[in-house]
Write a sequence for this structure.
């Protein structure tokens, strides 16, 4: 699989407008300083597939301190491996010095090591430390040339996800790569190379070693980036979902609907809340836990206390897999607690005033879609729910303008005509 001599392909019809002008300037400055400047990774993969890249990463042989000197508004970030963030208006461009994987020590222990430590290297070494061939292409913006050390161009053409080096070893070094493989398969509609599939089968248990914040970030990218339904399918086909969310089968209907909804929201440009999404994933367990607690203590206990206990237990359970910050936990607690009031049409005025009411009605709707409750209840609440916060703010502002003076009122009327 591995090609040691890089293949260089000129993209005659490369469209420079596909790249922000500030980035072209950044590359120019690096080159003027006597260094390499290449775009690398996902942006080239996406460009070559006709997709619009999410962000643009640059790789160079300049060291971080030098990059900072060459570029205005550039800051060194990261402790273990130092990267540069160059701010240009609202956009931040990431620039990284070429690095290589450290040589692995041949011991059973080192095999299980999660290796994220790196040292500086050259471009070839930088290519080989990356995860998949389609993610290791370099583009010289000035020459319009793609440099390919690992057969990524062919794999892009064949629409296949292939590991750089032995998949088994690469997944042992960093188990998150297994989830990344599923993510790219789902996002791009690519197939997984047989070696990658088999290495996932034999190493998936290592996902338990991934830190919870990293897992939360990966799951968010997997499920909340517009390809949640496809990701769910790939993750279940590979039996990977059970490693990150063991009880998912019991909640599959709710989860599937949550994925459909999140893809729709992403496509229509709406904000996606990961707290809401994880809440939807956990709802089923909360309802089950509440039932158990109710059976055990129902007669002698206050339902409010039981609900809090059930929510606490479920959040505790989820902590084994993902880490949710305090704000997200509070959010989940609120929308779960509101479900009972919504079911019973209780304290309508006060319930509608709750800051989380829109998300709670949203969850109610999801429950209706998975057949748990009557959809007419959702309609009842939706007719009464307050407008979105932005709409409310807009309305208040326009009311304020309207009231400010009789002249304003007149002006508004004139503008309308
Ligand atoms: P996306 O479009 O989702 O951002 P991406 O390929 O750009 O996809 P990033 O997470 O932004 O993914 O990573 C940028 C690049 O860094 C990747 O293309 C890959 O070359 C490399 N990379 C990221 N994570 C890993 C990893 N765990 N192991 C090896 N290489 C990685
Ligand atoms: Mg990226």
């Amino acid at each position: 699989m591995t090609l040691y001599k890089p293949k260089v392909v000129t993209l005659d019809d490369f469209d420079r407008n596909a790249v922000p002008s500030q980035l072209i300037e950044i590359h120019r400055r690096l080159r003027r300083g006597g260094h390499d400047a290449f775009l690398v990774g996902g942006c080239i993969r996406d460009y070559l597939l006709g997709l619009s890249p999410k962000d643009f990463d640059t790789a160079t042989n300049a060291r971080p301190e030098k990059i900072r000197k060459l570029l205005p508004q550039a800051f060194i970030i990261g402790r273990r491996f130092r990267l540069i963030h160059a701010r240009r208006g609202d956009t931040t461009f990431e620039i990284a010095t070429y690095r290589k994987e450290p040589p692995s020590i041949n011991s059973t222990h080192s095999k299980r090591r999660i290796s994220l430590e790196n040292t500086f290297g050259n471009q070839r070494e930088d290519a080989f430390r990356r995860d998949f061939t389609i993610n290791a292409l370099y583009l010289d913006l000035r020459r319009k040339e793609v440099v390919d050390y690992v057969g990524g161009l062919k794999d892009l053409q064949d629409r296949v996800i292939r590991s750089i080096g032995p998949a088994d070893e690469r997944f042992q070094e960093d188990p998150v790569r297994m989830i990344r493989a599923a993510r790219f398969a789902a996002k791009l509609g690519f197939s997984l190379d047989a070696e990658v599939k088999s290495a996932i089968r034999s190493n998936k248990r290592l996902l338990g070693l991934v830190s919870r914040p990293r897992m939360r970030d990966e799951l968010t990218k997997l499920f909340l980036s517009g390809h949640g339904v496809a990701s769910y399918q790939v993750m279940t086909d590979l039996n990977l979902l059970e490693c990150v969310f063991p009880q998912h089968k019991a909640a599959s209907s709710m989860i599937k609907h949550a994925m459909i909804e999140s893809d729709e929201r992403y496509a229509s440009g709406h904000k996606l809340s990961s707290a809401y999404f994880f809440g939807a994933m956990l709802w089923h367990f909360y309802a089950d836990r509440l039932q158990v607690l109710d059976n055990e203590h129902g007669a002698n206990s206050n339902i409010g206390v039981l609900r809090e206990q059930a929510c606490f237990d479920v959040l505790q359970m989820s902590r084994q897999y993902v880490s949710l910050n305090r704000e997200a936990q509070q959010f989940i607690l609120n929308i779960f607690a509101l479900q009972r009031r919504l079911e019973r049409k209780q304290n309508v005025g006060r319930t509608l005033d709750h800051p989380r009411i829109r998300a709670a009605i949203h969850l109610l709707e999801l429950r209706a879609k998975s057949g748990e409750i009557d959809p007419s209840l959702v309609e009842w609440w939706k007719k009464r729910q307050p407008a979105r916060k932005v709409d409310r703010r807009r309305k208040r502002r326009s009311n304020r303008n309207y009231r400010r003076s009789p002249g304003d009122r007149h002006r508004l009327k004139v503008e309308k005509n």
In short: Residues 105-116, 398-417 have pLDDT under 50 and may be disordered. Residues 41-42, 54-55 surround magnesium ion (ligand 2) (CB under 6 Å). The domain at 160-265 is CATH 1.10.3090.10 (cca-adding enzyme, domain 2).
